[in-house]
Amino acid sequence: MANISFLVDWFPGGGVERVIMNLAQPLAERGDKIYLFVHHLHREKLSEELPIEYLELPYSARSSKNYTFVTEAIRRNKIDIFFAPGRFPKYLPQLNKMGLCKLVYVLHGCPFYEKLEKWGQIIRPRKRGVVEWLNRYLINYPKYKLGYYDRKMERRYHTIYNAVDAYGVLFEEYGEMVAEEVGVPYKESKCVVLQNPIQISGDVELDMPRQKRVLFVGRLSYWDKRIDRLLSAWKLVYRDFPDWRLSIVGEGSEREALEQFVRDNDLQRVEFLGFEPNPKQLYATSEILCLTSTIEGCPMVLLEAQMCGCATMAFDCSSGVREILSPNWESGVSVPNGDIVGYAEALSRLMRDDALRRKIQKNGVENAKRFAPAKSAEQYHTLIERLMRS
Which of 1, 133, 138, 202 has its CA 20 to 30 Å from the CA of residue 58? Predict the structure, then answer.
């Protein structure tokens, strides 16, 4: 039994927040008391009561202004272990020096994703104008080419690693990458695998009629999600499948540009459905879920779609994607990263072959069960017990 806390900005929210929601009950059933440091709490959006005590932060989760509030809350609630999932609060090194509790950082993405994110911000800035243009070409681009952001990223990884008692990663390969960066043999490092859990549904009716729909669900951003690559693949196949459509679910800064791409290329049967807080019904009634990201940590959308009996495919952009979709053409479909023609050919094959889709859908349901909350909770609990003994 331990008093543990997690740190987020918004709750409920995206992938990190869903992980906490899925972990809360199985951890509580093991006897752990769970606290959540949160800046924006929206209780009205919670579909169920969770075994969590909320500690509302006065400032955004990473802000150093929270230091006094956090330390007082740790003392008052006798928190044993402080988890920082996906966010590195600037006061973490200070907490380390205070020694009030054990500290765990959990990297919820692929290691070194920051480099790709920075490059995307440079080539596809959110703002337009003269000032942004000058910053882009006279400051940010030269700094990127001279390795400034690489060195900054490397320092950040070293700072986080040195400030925590354990460094959580989603897959073993990610831990090996982090350990190599900080110069420690993986087996002797602080890295520990903490798998993302998904809620396991009841029996999925695979024989139920599904709409001939190719589905995308996620944030409409450029540097990572690259939905433009999905539209380019759709452009190559849609004429051969007049009874299929492409549905894009989500919001983000790229929506206008994506809609313009559809108009410019006269793409047919493409719909933008906007944000959907609970896309389960869409997964359950669609044939194929497509992901065209350039980088992913552990893409929950693939697991959630598999759990609902939807065939899944993606570019082979990380070990997380490979873990979820392997073996290829059995549990999912993986295409070499960036090969749009190959992606279109694989999508076409999947759309055409009903028996193949059914096999992949059936195998995907079983594959997703490997990521059940109970297994993730066991990994967390093992780490908690180890830290409590140390």
Answer: 1
Structure tokens at 16: 């990190």
Residue 370 DSSP class: G
* Closest to 218 in 3D by CA, of 279, 166, 169: 279
Q: What is the DSSP string of 246-269?
A: EEEE---TTHHHHHHHHHHTT--S
Q: Which pLDDT score is estimated for 209?
A: 85
Q: What is the pTM of this model?
A: 0.86
Beta strands in the chain (DSSP E): 3-11, 33-41, 53-56, 81-85, 102-106, 166-169, 191-193, 211-217, 245-249, 270-274, 286-291, 311-316, 333-336
Would you tell me how many other CB atoms lie within 10 Å of the CB of residue 253?
13
The 10s digit of each residue's pLDDT in 165-197 is 999 999 999 999 999 999 999 999 999 999 999
User: Does residue 129 come out as left (phi exceeding 0), alpha (psi in the -120 to 50 range) or beta?
Assistant: left
The answer to whether 171 touches 320, Cβ cutoff 8 Å, is: yes
Residue 241: pLDDT over 80: yes
d(CA 50, CA 47): 9
**In whole angstroms, what separates CA 171 from the centre of its chain?**
13
Neighbour count for residue 46 (Cβ, 10 Å): 13
**Average pLDDT of the chain to the nearest whole number:** 92
Phi, psi of 299, deg, nearest 5: -65, 100
Between 122 and 215, the higher pLDDT residue: 215
pLDDT digits 0-9 by tens, 249-284: 999 889 999 999 999 999 999 999 998 878 889 999
Token pair listed for 52: 């969590």
User: What pLDDT, in 10s, does the model give residues 46-64?
Assistant: 777 899 999 999 999 999 9
